[in-house]
Amino acid sequence: MQTNIRPRRDDDLPGCVAALRIVQRQDSYPLVWPADPVGWLCPKGVLDAWVCTADDEVVGQLLLRDGGDLELRDTVAGAAGLPADRLASVSRLFVAPRARGTGLAARLIDTAIATAAAQGRRCALDVLDARWGGPTALYERLGWRRVATTSASWWSGPDAERPVVHSYLAPDRASIPA
């Protein structure tokens, strides 16, 4: 399988939606299928976006955002020792099952960390608790550090079912001096 990471283009969005649908059916990510999948893939605050391909087919993506989407942005910034506007968030990361185990997710994350660092930012992210299907083990294996936990503010279901969200900081090697 030939794999590649490259900047996302508008004509990649149908492939992103197709891959996301497969991921959602298998992994329940996103937890609730969006009414507008393209809009979900193109939220506010996007600084950069990449896709990963396998044999020239889009099989996943990652967004680098301005950090405004982080549930506990100020808490995360404090843990990083940075002003909140120096954070960037890793968001909307997924890789289709057929391309897992190829290192594409780690390569997408490394690309985001390097890009954020070049912009004077440090990466952070919010991820659902593992019992909700969140890939916390992936981030911990890559050296990310959990710095906060809260309930998902975006949840519209019953409070008793409100998902737990963990906030992580990228590894220290990606830290930006204050």
Automatic annotation (TrEMBL):
Domain N-acetyltransferase: 3-171
Keyword set, alphabetical order: Acyltransferase, Transferase
Top-rank lineage group of the source organism: Bacteria
Family matches, as InterPro entries: Acyl_CoA_acyltransferase (IPR016181), Bact_Acetyltransf (IPR050832), GNAT_dom (IPR000182)
Keyword match Thylakoid: no
Organism: Actinocatenispora comari
One Pfam family per UniProt: Acetyltransf_7
SUPFAM superfamilies named in the record: Acyl-CoA N-acyltransferases (Nat) (SSF55729)
GO molecular-function terms, A-Z: acyltransferase activity, transferring groups other than amino-acyl groups
Protein name: N-acetyltransferase domain-containing protein
